[in-house]
Q: What sequence folds into this?
């Protein structure tokens, strides 16, 4: 999987085709979240001021994966893919950013960090605003750690609120090469 990420590919299991087999994809155009500085919507800033929660990194990575996989419809995050991400986590490449309230896991996301690259793979929330607060906390954390590329693969209306933009595949691969050449630590 690391070799795929270094090429700009990302994995997804297709629950309908191939019996849930894992395939690798390359989005064109590619969506990224700028880190100079990360944009936080006004409503999320307001929620952060009123929220007594806290960001926790890697507090319960396997549970974050399971919660990201829980969907009303089929999920791309198959049990085999969850196992592969847990392996990357044990090797220090995959991380969860969790928003906790009174110790409860209220929302979060997970991704892969290689050099100065962080890929956000999926997110969830169980309580109001918790996923958005985890996303905002991730951006601030990446800036503190001097990451240079925050890959989200595909643009959505939700990530557009956080300043997500699309870039060409060629531009993404140029930024990717520069990012993975850096030495950065996520934690």
A:
């Amino acid at each position: 999987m690391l070799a795929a990420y270094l090429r700009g590919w990302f994995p997804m299991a297709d629950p309908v085709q191939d019996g849930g087999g894992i395939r690798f994809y390359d989005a064109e155009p590619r969506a990224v979240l700028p880190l100079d500085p990360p944009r936080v919507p006004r409503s999320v800033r307001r929620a952060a001021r009123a929220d007594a929660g806290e960001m926790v990194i890697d507090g319960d990575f396997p549970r974050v994966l399971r919660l990201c996989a829980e969907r009303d419809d089929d999920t791309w995050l198959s049990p085999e893919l969850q196992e592969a991400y847990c392996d990357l986590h044990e090797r220090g490449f995959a991380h969860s950013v969790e928003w906790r309230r009174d110790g409860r896991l209220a929302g979060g996301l997970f991704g892969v960090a290689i050099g100065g690259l962080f890929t956000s793979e999926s997110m969830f929330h169980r309580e109001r605003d918790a996923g958005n607060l985890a996303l905002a906390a991730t951006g601030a954390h990446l800036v503190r750690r001097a990451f240079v590329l925050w890959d989200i693969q595909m643009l959505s209306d939700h990530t557009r609120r956080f300043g997500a933009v699309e870039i060409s595949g060629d531009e993404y691969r140029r930024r990717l090469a520069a990012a993975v050449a850096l030495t950065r630590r996520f934690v």
